[in-house]
Task: structure prediction
Amino acid sequence: MTLTVDLVLLTIRNGELQVLLVRRGIPPFQGEWALPGGFVLESEDLAEAAARELREETGVDPAAGHFEQLATYGAPGRDPRGRVVTVAYLALLPDLPAPVAGSDAAGASWRPIAAGDPLAFDHARILADGWERARAKLEYTPLATAFCPPVFTIAELRAVYETVWCTKLDPRNFHRKVTGAENFVEPTGESTIRDRGRPAQLYRRGTATLLHPALLRP
Result:
């Protein structure tokens, strides 16, 4: 049995939820889109292998965003090369520059999830599971801030929720819920000029690890 790691790397670019995909340069599935990943080395544990792949594919350290183990996938036949079990990891990251393809990839690109690109192996299922994990976590944790720069407006935070949840939210109601959730966000005491020249207060992530009360999806 062979062990691999696969990465579901999500970010928001140009107002869209996007995932990092690589164009496979070798068989199997040569020329098709796939999630980035690779084999676990003999000297690595799973988290080390996943962190290495993240650095190689994006140049980003896992500490730069949110990084967690998603699930294990080991269905017989999921990989035509033989019995391969993969452990998937989910990363939620702020907007990143264009990626550089790894040694066994023909190309790498941020692709909108809405594009529904066909994926190699069982990566469509892994991506769907990662997206749903992100959607759920935005309800009860402050992880939406992982998509934001260090300081942000409430409108920018709302845009994250709307993008990941694929829905529109009432601005006033959202503002009330976010600022009412204990230690979700903290005001910086500064403001910035955004749309239509109106000043908007800036916030940073607070100390909460769970949201009380939760922000439930419509």
